[in-house]
Write a structure and sequence with these properties.
Elements: H1 2-26, H2 31-43, H3 55-74, H4 78-109, H5 114-123, H6 129-138, H7 145-172, H8 182-213, H9 219-237, H10 242-253, H11 259-283, H12 298-316, H13 329-335, H14 340-352, H15 358-393
Length: about 400
């Protein structure tokens, strides 16, 4: 019965994810939104209520998020940062610091413990590279100067956001029974992320050279995923989330000549397992807390609105860091608004680590999803306005 349950759960999750993603494609919305909403709907079916607690399903979900961050790392070449230089760094730093501090101050003033308030601020720091890049591509802005600043800043933002995540998890939720001081864990987290990237870039060419000489089929994808899992496992040994190691592995392999073949070979596995993670996110959202007719839920609804009110201006402020001819600060700020998958990963890790309550988690997920919904039409409107202005000037 255990195996039959698992098969049923996986079938339901995969099918629901694809249906949700397809609906969002038709509506020109990010597919991640459809996968999460599919999880919300699936949880309302009694037979699937136990899926989020099933050990094998949670394991496959973990594999999915590891592959996702590995792909984000592969798409985040450090060379991109050199093209936009200080502008991207300035935009990213503002986009991390402002939401982090604003979220911490607001939630602490609302009566939440300082640790939970700080972690909630951390959830608001990460910009979604995937969602932003897709919208810019659809608007033919990906190669514009503003588009390059946005993508470069989003890459730096993800690196800083993952570092913030590692520090907060290490400091606020040290492993039970670990004699290691939180400050030492933070230091190890920083050294691990930076050291694994720079040391890995020196060793990666030799590793890929060895792989090229091997004749067995599938060697490249096995070596790449094996390297990803090795860094993810190494990170867990010092109390870090495995996604930090996976992201570092992607950054390292992005610097090799095998980057594109690795992306092509990892993508099929990613398309299968990553949706499991997002569907499980939806299945963990307690929709009953959003019933406006229940007075007990008013606090959760107000919290979601408060988080959204911080999330949007906090990233718009990042546009101040953009400067130079041909760069529109409003466009840059709007492009930094969507949080997407990385913010959702932050929230889920906080829930699993006991750093945030389930009601707070639900409010955070709704606020993060709202930021992804408003950006495509907002960016499109701003792009049309800029095009008209350019046509008038000509």
């Amino acid at each position: 019965m255990h195996e039959a349950e698992l098969i049923l759960f996986l079938m339901g999750i995969i099918v629901a994810a694809k249906i949700g993603a397809e609906l969002c494609e038709w509506l020109r919305q990010p597919t991640v939104l459809g996968e999460i909403l599919a999880g919300v709907a699936l949880y309302q079916i009694p037979v699937f209520r136990e899926a989020p607690e099933h050990e094998a399903v949670r394991f496959l979900s973990e594999i999915g998020v590891i592959l996702l961050l590995f792909e984000v790392g592969l798409e985040s070449e450090l060379s991109q940062l050199l093209k936009v230089g200080g502008q991207a760094v300035a935009v990213a730093c503002i986009g991390v610091v402002v939401p982090l501090l604003a979220g911490w101050v607001l939630l602490h003033q609302l009566g939440y413990p300082w640790g939970e308030a700080l972690f909630m601020g951390g959830i608001l720091t990460a910009t979604s590279v995937g969602i932003t890049a897709r919208v810019l591509r659809d608007l033919n802005l990906l190669r514009s100067r503003s588009g390059q600043v946005i993508i470069g800043a989003a890459v730096v933002d993800d690196i800083l956001g993952l570092l913030v995540l590692a520090i907060l998890v290490s400091a606020l939720a040290p492993r039970s029974g670990s004699p290691m001081h939180p400050a030492l864990q933070v230091g190890l987290a920083v050294l691990f992320l930076l050291g694994s990237v720079f040391l890995g870039m020196r060793l990666a060419p030799s590793l890929m050279g060895l792989v090229r000489r091997m004749r067995a089929g599938g060697t490249l994808v096995v070596a790449a995923v094996g390297f990803c899992l090795l860094l993810a496992y190494t990170g867990t040994l010092i109390g870090m989330a495995p996604i930090v190691g996976a992201f570092a592995a992607g950054l390292v392999l992005a610097s090799t000549d095998e980057k594109v073949p690795i992306e092509d070979k990892v993508q099929p596995a990613s398309e299968l397992f990553v949706p499991v993670f997002f569907v499980l996110i939806g299945m963990q959202i307690d929709v009953t807390v959003f019933n406006p007719f229940n007075p007990a839920n008013h606090g959760v609804l107000l919290l979601a609105l408060a988080l959204f009110a911080i999330a949007v201006p906090g990233k718009l402020a990042a546009g101040v860091g953009a400067f130079g001819k041909g760069i529109d600060r409003w466009l840059v700020g709007i492009g930094m608004v969507p949080r997407g998958e990385v913010g959702l990963i932050f929230a889920t890790i906080g829930l699993q680590a006991g750093l945030v309550q389930k009601s707070v988690y639900s409010a955070a997920v709704v606020a993060l999803l709202a930021t992804t919904l408003i950006v495509p039409p907002w960016l499109s409107r701003r792009a049309r306005r800029l095009a008209k202005r350019a046509a008038s000037a000509a």
